[in-house]
Every structure is written in C-alpha cells, then in structure tokens.
Recover the amino acids of this structure.
C-alpha cells in the first residue's frame, strides 16, 4: 500500500506549494500604441520651358494632380491623430514662385488647402511644415487626390524659355497613429 | 500588433500546464520511454495504456519575458512595461508550446524482441519574436532612419498531427539493445514561415526628402489544413480532429535508439526521434512575395499633354517588382527532429526483479547521470543539458530528480515518479518545479502523466 501514500504525498506537495502572483490583465485597457510613420510624397523639378504651352504661349501657373490612396484604408485612418507635411524647395528661377497644395476628395472638391507658400527667387533652402490635427480637420482623411499648383509671380520681365534654372519641390508626410485595445 | 499580443496571451495562459521529456527519458522502463528511445531495455511481457490516459504531456516555454513583466499589479504604466519588454526582446527569443496525448498504446513480446505500437496526437508550435517587425508596427519608421528592418526574423512553425507508430526493440547482445520505430504522420494543420529574407529601410533621398527600400524580399507563408476549398478558414474542431487519423496530408518518419552497457553499472543510451516529413497536398494556402523595390515617392511631370495616373503607376510598379502571389502548391514540411543522449551510472543496493522470461535481473537502487537533448527548430537547434539522480525506493516505486539547463532556464529542477500497484502503473513528472512558487513569473513549465497496465 505504499503506492497511494507516496503519490498522495507528491500530489499534495505540489498542490500546497504551488501558487501564483495576482495579475491584472485589465491594464491592457490603458495601453496606447503610438506609431510615427514617415513616407516620401510628391516631388518634381521644373524648368522655365514647362511654363510655355506647346504653341509657345507663356503660362503663369501650371498644375498637376495625383491620386493618394493611403487614406482609403479605414482600419488605418481610424487611428491617425495628426499628419505633418514637410516640404523642401529650391527656387532657382529669377522670380518668386507660389505653391498651392490642395487636398481633394473623390468629387474633386477641395477639403483642405495649405497656406499658400511664396518662395523668393533664388531661395535654395526653403522649408515648410504644415501640421494637421485630425481632431480639428476630420475631413482630411477623405483625401483621395492632391493637386499642386505652381504660380509664377510677375517680375516685370518675361520668362526666358531657354533658361536652365530649376525649381525643385520635395515633400514627405509623417503620420502619427495612436491605437489601443 | 493586437493579434500578436493576443496570441502570446493565449499561449501564456496555457503555461500552468506543461512538461519536459528529459525527466521521462530512460526512466523506470516505462512503456512511454520507448517513444523517447526505442532502444530502451524492456523487461516486461506486454503492456497497454489506458486509452486516452496512458500519456498526456504539455510543455510551454517563453524566453524574453514572463507574465508578471507585463501584468503584475504595480504602479508602473502598462505602456512603459510593454516598451521595456519589447526593447529587451532579442531575435532569439521565442514562445513554444507542445502537447501530446496518447490515444492508444500497447506492446507485446516476440521472443527477444518487444513490439510496441500506438496512436498519439501532437500539437507543436514555436514562434520567434520578429523584433524588427514588431518595432516597425509598434513605433513606426520615423525614428529609425537608415535602420534596416529585417523580415528574416519572421519565423514560426505550428503543427497539429496524428501519429500512428509501430516499433521494435531487440536485445542484440548482453550489452546492447537497439530499436526502431516507424511513424505515419497525418497532418491536420501546418503553417510555417521559414527562410524569409529582405529588409525595409528609409533613408534620406536624392530627388525627394526620403527614399524607401524593400531589398531582397523573399517572404513565404505556407499552410495546409487551415483554409478549406471554399477559401474560408476551417473553424470546425472536428475537421482538425478527423484529419489527424490518416487524413489527406500524410508523411512518414522514424525513430532509432540504442542502449549499451559499457560495464554492468555504466550505461550509454541515445536516440534520434521524428526524422521524417509530411507531404502537404490538400487544403493548401501559400503566400509568396519576392523581389526588390525602392521609391522616392511620386514624381509629378507637369505635362498637361500626357496626364498620368501616378498612383496607379506606383502601385503597378510595386506589384511588378515584388509580385505577391497565393498558390495551392503542395509542399513538404520536416518534423522537428530530436536527439537524446545519456550516460548513466548505477550504484547502491543490489536488488533483483523478475523478467519476462522468468529470470531475475539484478538492478541497482540508485543512479546518476547526464543527458543531452536537442530539438531542431527553425532558427537553430535548441539544447538542454540535464543531470539526474534516480532512486528506486522499492521494486515498484521509482523516482527521478533532474537539473536542467536550457534556453529558458539555468535552474530547472524536475521530478518524476513511477509507481506500480499490481499490474497498474502510474507515472507523473513535473519540470521547473521551483517556478511553482509563483506560476505567474515562470517562463517554462511542463508536466507529463499517464497510466498503463503492465504484465511481467
């Protein structure tokens, strides 16, 4: 009859000696995961000849537009709290240039516009930051297109078609995300 | 991120029930030792396991952190605790889970040979923490300019299999006993992602502020038994259970082992287990993404005569450079092969016990020794070194105490017993018993228990 006695002793030993520290899994309710994603956005380089039509007529402004499908992902946009748009611009032209950035929705309606930015002639180190709090601008997440318009300021002299000066535009976006359980 | 934490949580909850088979290895001539070494000496005439209860084992281990690191009741902020844990994880840290349940097992003697067979089900899973991917998902890339986030850290393997096995153990000479076991695997579920390559890097750009690189991407995720022909996840437990017995995804493997008496008191034993594979060909759902891609963003052309859909071009270019494909191609998965080796020195009081051929065998009441255990895992072999002391308190009651150092602990003390009452044998083993003083802070626990009927 030794077998039941030994077994009982062994089982009792571990039952009596094992224990655990209380845990609080509800702490996860207070968990906030913060992510900052940086993405390259639009860039371009323009020369004076691009401000002339195919028939050689000078144009004071030109525009281009691109789709932006980042915000089509509902799971992503629900946790975005802020977006920073950074631009780095070099204006090698002989006149000031104004940049207008417009965010459009699917119907091409403007839902957000950057403060118009004027870059002085020959300013090769212009930087601009547009900070957008989602709470103040909830429509920004409906953006599906971005339109960037480049306008030449009137300097009193006509633009030289053959000038090799460049206007360079670079941009990036930092998306601040906060998610919780 | 949430899914990863939830998965870890589920595994963590299961940690109260676990097992380590180093304790079982070569212990007390239990029938189950034939599964860890088919070359184990067998002295009884026959045995059978109590159906469903002959062998049940569980093993859980987590390196890198324990539950109390995250959920202890203190005044620390949960965000700080999670950040601390994630920052301290290494790419070698992992969480593993293994469970085996014998459904049937039996054996009988044919002359000098002992034939044993049975059927058991096994769950085996290991996930390495993909530190870079977790960092990218949890913190983003903004603070990590020039850092290469490595996808090679995506590494996991999970199996649910049923194993039909039959083996033979033969006493070749007075000193040597050898054995082998043939296995037929029936996989109910396999999913694995192994051998991935590639990095994601954000650097300062030339034409734009930043440049993003996806270099040398080769990511593959394989699964069988997880997604049905209707492309929906199989969520019926019965489907998995049914496929563990001669289902559509079959494989073969074998175990070999030997025991050699260098002297009457000094014994060497070793085994190779689960050297085999499964050929998956039904309910396959694989994913691959291969290639390289870089972008500095969208280059606007301001060409009104040739308007472009820039985003579509970017998207098309990405899909062309790194094509992501799903397929149902059959594939082979290798079983996690294990190695055992042990040296045992017996001493103490000499006793005799009756053998199957009505002769008496002399045995010693005490033994000490060392064991080496290794299992081949996707990243690298995992090793465990064990020192043990065995004591036969009576001819029918045997005990074993082990001290194991492995990837999870350098102070793992285990204990086991085997008791026979009449023809009924009962055994039980616990590993890492020091952790039972606070299960919440244990990073490794295991147990094994079962019941057999043995005929001498």
């Amino acid at each position: 009859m030794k077998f039941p006695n030994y077994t009982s002793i062994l089982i009792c030993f571990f039952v009596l000696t094992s224990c655990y520290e209380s845990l609080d899994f509800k702490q996860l309710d207070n968990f906030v995961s913060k992510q900052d994603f940086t993405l390259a956005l639009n860039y371009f380089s323009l020369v004076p000849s691009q401000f002339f039509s195919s028939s050689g007529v000078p144009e004071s402004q030109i525009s281009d537009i691109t789709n932006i499908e980042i915000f089509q992902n509902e799971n992503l946009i629900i946790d975005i709290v802020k977006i920073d748009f950074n631009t780095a611009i070099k204006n090698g032209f002989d006149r000031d240039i104004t940049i207008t950035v417009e965010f459009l929705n699917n119907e091409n309606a403007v839902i957000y516009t950057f403060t118009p930015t004027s870059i002085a002639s020959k300013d090769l180190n212009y930087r601009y930051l547009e900070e957008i709090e989602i709470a103040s601008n909830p429509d920004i997440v409906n953006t599906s297109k971005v339109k960037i318009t480049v306008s030449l300021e009137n300097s009193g002299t006509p633009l030289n078609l053959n000038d090799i000066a460049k206007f360079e535009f670079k941009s990036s976006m930092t998306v601040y995300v906060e998610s919780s359980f | 991120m949430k899914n990863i934490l939830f998965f870890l949580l589920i595994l963590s909850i299961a940690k109260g029930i676990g097992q380590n088979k180093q304790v079982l290895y070569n212990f007390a001539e239990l029938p189950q030792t034939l599964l860890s070494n088919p070359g184990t000496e067998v002295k009884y005439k026959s045995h059978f396991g109590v159906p469903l209860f002959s062998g049940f084992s569980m093993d859980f281990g987590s390196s890198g952190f324990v539950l109390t690191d995250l959920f202890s009741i203190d005044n620390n902020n949960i965000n700080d605790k999670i950040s601390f844990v994630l920052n301290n994880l290494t790419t070698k840290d992992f969480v593993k889970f293994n469970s085996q349940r014998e459904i049937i097992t039996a054996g009988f003697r044919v002359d000098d040979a002992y034939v044993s067979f049975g059927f058991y089900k096994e769950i085996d899973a290991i996930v390495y923490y993909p530190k870079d991917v977790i960092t990218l998902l949890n913190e983003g890339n903004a603070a990590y300019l020039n850092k290469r986030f490595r996808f090679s850290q995506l590494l996991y393997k999970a199996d649910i299999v049923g194993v039909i096995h039959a083996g033979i153990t033969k006493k070749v000479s007075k000193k040597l006993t050898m054995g082998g076991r043939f296995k037929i695997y029936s996989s109910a579920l396999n999913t694995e992602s192994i051998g991935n390559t590639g990095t994601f890097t954000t650097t300062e750009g030339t034409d734009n502020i930043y440049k993003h690189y996806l270099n040398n991407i080769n990511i593959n995720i394989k699964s069988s038994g997880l997604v049905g022909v209707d492309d929906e996840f199989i969520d019926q437990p019965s489907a998995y259970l049914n496929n563990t017995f001669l289902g559509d995804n079959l494989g073969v493997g074998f175990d070999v082992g030997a025991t050699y008496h260098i002297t009457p008191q000094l014994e060497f034993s070793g085994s190779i287990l689960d050297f085999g594979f499964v050929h998956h060909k039904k309910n396959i759902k694989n994913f691959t993404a291969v290639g390289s891609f870089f972008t500095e963003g969208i280059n606007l052309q301001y060409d009104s005569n040739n308007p472009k859909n820039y985003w579509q071009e970017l998207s098309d270019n990405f899909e062309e450079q790194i094509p992501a494909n799903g397929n149902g191609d059959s594939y082979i998965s290798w079983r996690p092969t294990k190695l055992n080796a042990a040296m045992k020195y017996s001493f103490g009081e000499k006793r005799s016990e009756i053998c199957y051929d009505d002769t008496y065998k002399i045995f010693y009441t005490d033994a000490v020794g060392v064991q080496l255990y290794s299992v081949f895992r996707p990243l690298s072999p995992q090793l465990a070194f064990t020192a043990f002391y065995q004591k036969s308190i009576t001819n029918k009651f045997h005990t074993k105490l082990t001290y194991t150092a492995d990837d999870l602990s350098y102070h793992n003390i285990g204990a086991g017993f085997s008791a026979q009452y009449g023809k009924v044998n009962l055994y039980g083993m616990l590993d890492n018993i020091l952790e039972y003083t606070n299960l919440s802070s244990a990073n490794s626990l295991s147990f094994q228990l079962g019941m057999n009927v043995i005929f001498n």
Q: What stands out?
A: The two ends of chain A are 55 Å apart (CA to CA). Chain A has a mean pLDDT of 86.
